[in-house]
Amino acid sequence: MRQSLYAAVSACALLGALATPAAAKTVKVEMTVKEVELEVDHKGTKQKMWTYGGTIPGPLVRVTEGDTVDFTLINDAANKNSHSMDFHAAIVDVLDEFAEVKPGGTKRFTFEAKYPGVFVYHCGAASMVEHISRGMYGVIIVDPKESFSAAYPKPDREYVLVQGDLFREGTAVDDLLDGKNWIGALINGKVFHYDPVHDPGASQTLQAKPGERVRIYYVNASVNEPVALHPIAGIWDRVYDQGNPKNVVHGAQTFLIPPASGAVFDIVPPAGRATNNAIVDHAMSRALRGAITVLMTNDDADPTLGRGDKLILR
Ligand code: CU
Ligand code: CU
What separation in Å is there between the alpha carbon of 66 and the centre of ligand 2? Predict the structure, then answer.
């Protein structure tokens, strides 16, 4: 009797240990602002962009709910402008942590990632519309501390897509605010980045095998407009608004993402056949000017894509 009680107690202790979320940790993140020329399409068109680390979007930050982010922003001395960092995953003081840093300066601050989800980060230096439209944005994923469950199943592949605006080079701030001289929608920094159907110069697509659950972290970094995200020839199995597993919508066709927000989209292409989806901002002006991403599903899918460091395809 005593032995079986002991066995039951230790089994409980073991189950308890398995269900205990990983201990919160401190994650160091450092970014250097670089004002650089970048190609914004597959034709080699270049524009003067402002970036975190030299790419659009900036580096993907990924932590777990409860972790502390220890962040340092370095404004390269070669830059001409002040810059800042505004993490939408942070609860701090806009006038303190998010203050501007002059060229040659640095700014360090910490915050606890209290809510799970997919959040944008962006520069808030004046004029913000110019800093964002020149590419100063990126994504922080805060994974839920409960990890996966029936309500939030483990995906087979994960991709990060950020939609932004492309304006004619040299557009004045007042015109940016009014949406004038808007010429295209950027997906991860390029128009039609992953769409060989509308741009034969596109060499990459998202890939998966038939029947796999593909999880897409989609962030809207447009300065004024929402994104109406639809997977042509598919239905979102689930959408997690803000990327929070508690905010689930089932069987969605088109889901609206406001400016400076994000959502997580699960799609499960059919097993047993090769298919293609076109993931599109269903507002036609933005779709046909760059905001289409092809997801190819077949048995030859590259096993490295959508895993490890290939969530943002560069
Ligand atoms: Cu900036
Ligand atoms: Cu913001």
Answer: 21
| Residues near ion ligand 2 (Cβ under 5 Å) | 260
- 218 and 180 in one domain? yes
Q: Which of 89, 32, 91, 23 is nearest to 62 (CA)?
A: 89
Residue 85 Cα to ligand 1 middle (Å): 8
Domain finish residue from 111, 143, 175: 143
Q: How far is the CA of 282 from the centre of ligand 2 (A)?
A: 24
Closest ligand relative to 83 C-alpha: 1
pTM of the model: 0.93
166, 261: one domain: yes
Last residue in a domain, options 90, 119, 143:
143
Of the bound ligands, which one is closest to the alpha carbon of residue 75? Answer: 1
Q: Is the pLDDT of residue 178 over 90?
A: yes
Give the C-alpha distances (Å, rounded to integers) separating 255 from 54, 60, 82, 208.
31, 23, 35, 22
Average pLDDT over residues 81-103: 98
Same domain, residue pair 190 and 123: no
State the average pLDDT over residues 307-313.
Answer: 97
Is residue 16 scored above 70 in pLDDT?
A: no
How far is the C-alpha of 278 from the C-alpha of 295, rounded, in Å? 6
Identify the CA nearest to 312 among candidates 133, 32, 29, 53: 53
- Domain hosting 247: range is 157-297
> What is the 32 CA–ligand 1 centroid distance (Å)?
11
As for how many domains the chain has, the answer is 2
Distance (angstroms) between ligand 2 centre and the Cα of 179 equals 18
C-alpha 227 to ligand 2 mean position (Å): 16
270 and 162 inside one domain: yes
Q: Is residue 314 part of a domain?
A: no
Residues 160/265, Cβ–Cβ less than 8 Å = no
